[in-house]
């Protein structure tokens, strides 16, 4: 559905995109991640025809974003970070206006608006002026205008920015519903949104793609997590036995709760044998093992590993 090949973008002497390439298949929901200034919004603006690339090529549903810009725009629903709405218009008036400028045939306008209203949960605010709506409902109106012409592709830039936790959950559920009917590119700083909504993740950093794969594939690139163990027994004795029987594994007290102590065992790249050895150590010394689990890597761990180090290098330069 979307193909990007060696895309570059210069702003004067600053290069925002450095030859990125990726493909998005029909029906995929892509999380498009990166630090501020990484090139995410620039990529989205090129795909939507808002900006011209300096070099490279991008197509949507087979249409070139430069040579067939209008055909591309007909196939895209776009929600920019700052939702552009006409506050003085009523919600129903605004959506009717959107169908007209998007070229929806008059015979289909009513059904198209009804579908967008139902999907976005706007029934009870249709007669209200947009300026009167909460930010959560304004964001829903923005999503409704993006889907009212039933485009095959949705590009959503920070759809939950500035919303409270309840509104975030509502918009997240809406994006999940939209993902069942559209190809979606979702840019956000909230990694939970990506974890819950996206089938694949692309991470951009300093104008380049540094990761592209499913969440499971990206998490597999991280080293095995530390062990967390809750033990009932003399703290000094537990630490002494760990130092004796688990050489090379750093053991530290993470938390003391009641008569138990939680330890963090840094096992590096070691696997199950360390878990078995720790469990045996506890049981054979008469201690009580209340919990033993391995910390799991998160998408945040992947993101920080790929982007944080080079940012520190830039800051030191």
Short summary:
The chain is of the alpha/beta class.
Question: What features would you describe in this structure?
Answer:
With 317 residues, this protein is α/β, with parallel strands linked by helices. The protein has two domains: 2-219, P-loop containing nucleotide triphosphate hydrolases (Rossmann fold, 3-Layer(aba) Sandwich); 227-294, Ribosomal protein S10 (Alpha-Beta Plaits, 2-Layer Sandwich), CATH 3.30.70. Helices cover 38% and strands 28% of the residues. Helix 3 packs across helix 4. The protein is elongated and about 80 Å long.
Q: What is the fold's blueprint, element by element?
A:
Layout: E1 2-11, E2 14-24, E3 29-33, H1 40-47, E4 55-60, E5 63-64, H2 69-74, E6 76-79, H3 91-101, H4 106-120, H5 135-147, E7 153-157, H6 165-179, E8 183-187, H7 191-197, E9 200-205, E10 208-213, H8 215-219, E11 227-232, H9 235-245, E12 250-257, E13 260-266, H10 272-284, E14 288-294, H11 299-316
Parallel strand pairs: 3-8, 3-9, 6-7, 7-8
Antiparallel strand pairs: 1-2, 1-4, 4-5, 9-10, 11-13, 11-14, 12-13
């Amino acid at each position: 559905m979307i193909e990007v090949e060696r895309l570059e973008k210069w702003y004067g002497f600053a290069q925002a995109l450095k030859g990125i390439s990726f493909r998005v298949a029909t029906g995929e929901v892509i999380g498009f991640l990166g630090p501020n200034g990484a090139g995410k919004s620039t990529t989205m603006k090129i795909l939507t025809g808002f900006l011209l690339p300096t070099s490279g090529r991008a197509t949507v549903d087979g249409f070139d974003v430069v040579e067939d810009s209008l055909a591309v725009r007909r196939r895209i629903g776009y929600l920019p970070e700052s939702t552009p709405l006409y506050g003085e218009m009523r919600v129903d008036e605004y959506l009717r206006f959107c169908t007209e400028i998007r070229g929806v045939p008059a015979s289909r306008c009513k059904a198209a608006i009804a579908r967008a209203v139902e999907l976005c949960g706007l029934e009870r605010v249709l007669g209200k002026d947009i300026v009167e709506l909460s930010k959560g409902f304004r964001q829903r109106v923005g999503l409704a205008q993006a889907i009212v012409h039933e485009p095959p592709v949705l590009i959503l830039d920070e759809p939950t920015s500035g919303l409270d936790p309840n509104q975030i959950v509502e918009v997240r559920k809406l994006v999940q519903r939209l993902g069942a009917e559209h190809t979606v590119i979702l840019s956000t700083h909230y990694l939970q949104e990506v974890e819950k909504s996206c089938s694949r993740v692309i991470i951009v950093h300093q104008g380049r793609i540094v990761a592209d794969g499913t969440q499971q594939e990206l998490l597999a690139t991280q080293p095995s997590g530390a062990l967390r163990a809750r033990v009932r027994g003399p703290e000094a004795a537990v630490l002494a036995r760990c130092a004796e029987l688990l050489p090379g594994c750093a053991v530290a007290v993470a938390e003391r709760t009641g008569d138990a102590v939680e330890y963090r065992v840094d096992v590096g790249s070691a696997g199950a044998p360390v878990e078995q050895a720790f469990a045996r150590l506890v049981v054979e010394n008469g201690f009580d093992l209340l919990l033993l689990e391995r910390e799991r890597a998160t998408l945040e761990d992947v993101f920080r590993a790929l982007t944080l180090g080079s940012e520190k290098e830039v800051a030191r330069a």
